[in-house]
Known about the structure:
Blueprint: H1 2-22, E1 25-31, E2 39-40, E3 46-47, H2 49-61, E4 64-70, H3 75-80, E5 86-88, H4 95-98, E6 102-103, E7 111-117, H5 118-121, E8 134-137, H6 142-149, E9 155-158, H7 162-171, E10 176-180, H8 181-189, E11 195-203, E12 211-212, H9 217-231, H10 234-244
Parallel strand pairs: 1-4, 1-5, 8-9, 8-10
Antiparallel strand pairs: 2-3, 5-12, 6-12, 7-10, 7-11
Helix pairs in contact: 2-9, 2-10
Amino acid sequence: MKIYRFMMILLCIFISPWLWAQEKVLRIAVAIYDPPFVMQIANNQFYGFDIAMMEDVCRRIGYTCQFIATPNNLLIERVRSRQADLAVSSIIITVKRLQQVNFSLPYLVSQARFLGPAKLAAQPFDIDLLDNKKIGITDNAFLSLIKIMGIKKPKVILFEHDNLMIQALRSGAIDIAFVDNPTAHYWHMNSSGSLRAMGEPVTFGAGIGIAVNRNNFKLLSVINPALLDYQNSEAFKDDYHKYLLHFSTDTPPQNAANLQ
Length: 260
């Protein structure tokens, strides 16, 4: 009996590392702070719509998610340089980005909106209101959109993540922020009235997607079916209602029919 027990212990010792080595992990670059898509509690513990979505997708394809906090402006680079397998955080699909990485099918419509202090928001909104203003962004894809709008002499400041930008907006270091529409709604509802969504949402890009390295077609080929399965599941409906519904009144999901 003792010999049998001893052999079982040895077997566990040798097999456990092998089993651990077989665990399939997806390294996923995510923004440090991008509510309501990505929020961080502590010790790299994340939650939000994109986190819930990726955990579901990982489960469907038999992987474990490893989320890596990353400055917004480095998300694409982390995937391009293979420091991460994927990147999510309300990443807008643009022509320029498609030259650097591949994207999954879009899972949400991409829209941008201005967010400003209540005093500025009390004025009738007009593009001329933004002339000569300091405009904060965390997504450099918005630069081209700001140029198209015809704002005169804007000073655009790129921040590493939303929290730094919101602090700058509150302190007056910037005059206004340009963010995705759900984020504008989030701060509109969670700033005790000090910040307000301004103007109408502007549709931009080809939707929000998951960034994948251009050479990893195998991973993309399993991500897309899993993403479609998720979008057609009750989990998608639950996550959308939990994280986005109250902050996306103008932004229907990519497969809105599933939420009827």
